Amino acid sequence: MKSEIENLFSDEILNQSIEFFELEKDKTTKIDSFESFIFESVWKGIPCILRITHSSHRNIEQIKGELDWINYLAGNSAPVCEAFPSLNGNYVEKIILQDSSYFLVAIFRKAEGVTLNKNKHLLTEHLIIEWGKLVGKLHRLTKEYLPSTKENKRPMWSDYIPNIEEYLNEEPVALKRAKEITKTIRALPKDRDSFGLIHYDIHQANFLINNGKISLFDFDDSEYSWFIADIAVILFTVLWAKLNGEKSREEFIIDFLNKFLMGYNQENELSNWWLNKIPEFLRMRHILLYAVIIREHKLNPTEWSKKLIEEWKSMIESDIPYVALKPKKHLKMFVN
Fold first, then answer.
1. Where are the domains of the chain?
2. % of the chain at pLDDT higher than 90
3. DSSP structure string for 230-271
4. Contact 41, 107 (CB under 8 A)
5. Residue 226 β-bridge partners
6. Going by CATH, does the domain composed of 120-330 fall within 3.90.1200.10?
């Protein structure tokens, strides 16, 4: 988070946020401040998450769109952490600052369970299938979703392209690669069975596991995009988190994706044509994260980000895929 945003935040903002939702102040504890200020708290005896977001990150229409979709999914039995209303009956409250910017306040049910990152032994065939079922269910439900009002609108995938290009303005080869893959993806067809509102960040840090069941949260990146993009994000992130252990990336991801699709296909189905597009969306994800890490490195340089930028720069400029996945060859359910 930019230092100027941190400087705008204060105890007064926090206290006002607590009052909006009548949270238990003595049980409100800060846990993160990467893109928003995140606190644990208690609402009407229920453990919850308090999120305070500056308008430079998301505007009020985007937040309303996020909460509207979350509660639609929760209302249709998806295992997601729903949003709760304030004392005023609003799901998002606005705190206007002297510079005319504002903070947006929302609370969510706190998920129960443990993280996969700290409990890698839980990455069993059962869990991977459950993971796939969760994503398939979200895609099936989103086909029927209509925002409750026209103002509740999440971004389109392409809204972020100018940012990526800006972050890569000193990286001519990577910028060229970004424009190439963007052009390829922009030309893809959009229809009800392939394109809609997706989470776009369903990786292992954004859900908790409780008795083999998943509770999903953090819909901050949700956007209108292709369903296959949701799957590509997961594949990329499980490898980046080194969940493959001693297995090669290719061996692990082939096994993971086959099991994942066993669950996914119980709730929704994507054609072979779309499965064959996974490598292109993996490439897009790689370039997007590369651009974001370059931006973050400029704001807060670390040895970790420096090494990662060097490694990824070489891969992207040489057109080396993050993982050599060939769906037509590697997927068991791929019907020729």
1. 3-109, 120-330
2. 93
3. HHHHHHHHHHHTTTTTTS-HHHHHHHHHHHHHHHHHHH----
4. yes
5. 195
6. yes
